[in-house]
Write a structure and sequence with these properties.
The complex is a heterodimer of chains A (117) and B (112).
Chain A (H helix, E strand, L loop, with lengths): L4 E3 L2 E4 L5 E6 L6 E7 L6 E7 L2 E4 L8 E4 L6 E5 L8 E8 L11 E2 L3 E5 L1
Parallel strand pairs in A: 2-11
Antiparallel strand pairs in A: 1-3, 3-8, 4-5, 4-9, 5-6, 7-8, 9-10, 9-11
Chain B lengths: L3 E4 L2 E5 L5 E6 L7 E6 L6 E6 L5 E4 L2 E6 L4 E6 L8 E7 L8 E2 L3 E6 L1
Parallel strand pairs in B: 2-11
Antiparallel strand pairs in B: 1-3, 3-8, 4-5, 4-9, 6-7, 7-8, 9-10, 9-11
The chains are: A mainly beta (117), B mainly beta (112).
Chain lengths: 117, 112
């Protein structure tokens, strides 16, 4: 079974530029998550989709971050304009259904590493 | 109240030792407590998880101990191996919210 695919793996941009990350979840997984992991910290949820609807975006900095999941499959996370503090790994994850319980294990991709200079 | 506090930040043990990583939470609504293992350059992977209706769960060399009254849970790795060297994260969530709240992580190094 293919895992969660993310691209690009690495990106270096200057502050105030924009960047977009793409995620393809595991086939059949209804729930998709974007996490931000700053070096030395645990992942923090940015946004959670159930199919193509947003379940939780309470920690998404909406003045600069946006995400969409058209057709309930692939998702894109965009940052515009980027700030230095956005330097982090952006992890996409998916689960069969809503909630991280038995049968709903959250599977993470390898992440997209962003450096803002 | 949404925080999960994890300690220690880093841990070094000899091969065969039993590293113990501790986590504490405040939100009594949390009812699912997983541990994730993350190798450099990889995403976190679920290792083992527990619900508050049991005090201990064992899977292979990994054991979770859970103390509901103290709102604490810990991960024990029996007979640790160099291949266990990774960063370990505890997490917690509630059935109603579903959102995983992660601890700060523990970088474990197992020396041969």
């Amino acid at each position: 079974e293919a895992g969660v695919a993310q691209s690009p793996r690495y990106k270096i941009i200057e502050k105030r530029q924009s960047v977009a990350f793409w995620c393809n979840p595991i086939s059949g997984h209804a729930t998709l998550y974007w996490y931000q992991q700053i070096l030395g910290q645990g992942p923090k949820l940015l946004i959670q989709f159930q199919n193509n609807g947003v379940v939780d975006d309470s920690q998404l900095p909406k003045d600069r971050f946006s995400a969409e999941r058209l057709k309930g499959v692939d998702s894109t996370l965009k940052i515009q304009p980027a700030k230095l503090e956005d330097s982090a790994v952006y992890l996409c994850a998916s689960s069969l259904n809503r909630g991280p319980y038995s049968g709903n294990t959250i599977y993470f991709g390898e992440g997209s590493w962003l450096t803002v200079v | 109240q949404q925080q999960v506090k994890q300690s220690p930040q880093s841990l070094i043990v000899q091969k065969g030792g039993i590293p113990i990583i501790n986590c504490a939470y405040e939100n009594t609504a949390f009812d699912y407590f997983p541990w994730y293992q993350q190798f450099p350059g990889k995403g976190p992977a679920l290792l083992i998880a527990i619900r508050p209706d049991v005090s201990e769960k064992k899977e292979g060399r990994f054991t979770i101990s859970f103390n509901k009254s103290a709102k604490q849970f810990s991960l024990h790795i029996m007979d640790s191996q160099p291949g266990d060297s990774a960063t370990y994260f505890c997490a917690a969530s509630s059935q109603t919210r579903g959102k995983l709240i992660f601890g700060q992580g523990t970088e474990l190094s197992v020396k041969p």
